[in-house]
Design brief:
The protein is an alpha/beta fold. It has 2 domains: 118 residues, Response regulator (Rossmann fold); 102 residues, Orthogonal Bundle (Arc Repressor Mutant, subunit A). It is 43% helix and 21% strand. It contains 9 helices and 12 strands. The protein has a 5-stranded parallel beta sheet, with helices on both faces. Strand 7 and strand 8 form a beta hairpin. Helix 6 packs across helix 8. The longest helix is centred in the middle third of the chain and has 20 residues. It starts with a strand and ends with a helix.
Length: 227
């Protein structure tokens, strides 16, 4: 059974969500503030979090970066595009605005679980002609194997796992410790620069693009070929 944590101080909305989710066969836990959400997460790890933004104490924007390795769907009355973009860049898996259609919400939840299942079962990551083998800890660009340091490998893995979005510097630094502890805010730029150079030397292409003031993303093939 998949377990979902609902973080919302609106008791009526929380009750409605809990009823819908339990009917769909999900286990449900509740938190009514940002502080309570972090406490609940420290006790038991759910499979997904539904996170409201307007919370007492710590608000949703403050809680989101502290949630690691769990898909988070933000459920909020904020509908401006800048807020949505900022939250997605800061680690949210999806965003749905209040009031929402329950069928749409359930579909978005199913998509997150399907994506998670795909990530767990895959032993390798691919992006265009880049391949990262997580079992053998090898990377190939085209037909060339690229020798990377542990930190460079960890950075590339995160970029490939999030290939459809810009990966913020804070996201990289927060998650990099899963594979290597030696990357810091001051050394991140150097590690990325070395990684870009090695990939470029292997295949003559620049696979990684810096997004000024935000972070990094993988380049689309058309950008690399100059089309």
């Amino acid at each position: 059974m998949k377990n979902i944590l609902i973080v919302d101080d609106d008791i009526h909305i929380g009750n409605m969500l809990e009823e819908i989710l339990r009917k769909e066969g999900y286990g449900v836990s509740r938190a009514y503030s940002g502080t309570e959400a972090l406490l609940a997460l420290s006790v038991a790890k759910p499979d997904l979090v539904l996170l409201d933004l307007m919370l007492p104490g710590l608000n949703g924007e403050e809680v989101l970066p502290k949630i690691k390795d769990i898909p988070v769907i933000v459920v909020s009355a904020k509908v401006d595009i800048d807020s949505k973009v900022a939250l997605l860049l800061d680690g949210a898996a999806d965003y749905i605005s209040k009031p929402f259609n329950t069928k749409e919400l359930l579909a978005r939840i199913q998509v997150q679980f399907r994506n998670a299942a795909g990530r767990v079962s895959a032993s390798s990551l691919t992006y265009d002609d880049l391949t990262l083998d997580m079992d053998a800890h090898t990377v190939t660009a085209g037909s060339e194997e690229v020798k990377l340091t542990k930190t460079e490998y960890a950075i590339l893995k995160l970029l490939m796992q999030n290939s459809m979005r810009v990966v913020t510097k804070s996201f990289l630094l927060d998650h990099i410790s899963e594979d290597t502890p030696d990357c810091t805010d001051s050394s991140l730029k150097m590690h990325v620069s070395n990684l870009r150079k090695k990939l470029r030397e292997a295949n003559g292409r620049d696979y990684i693009e810096a997004v000024w003031g935000i972070g990094f993303k993988l380049r689309a093939s058309s950008e690399r070929y100059g089309e």
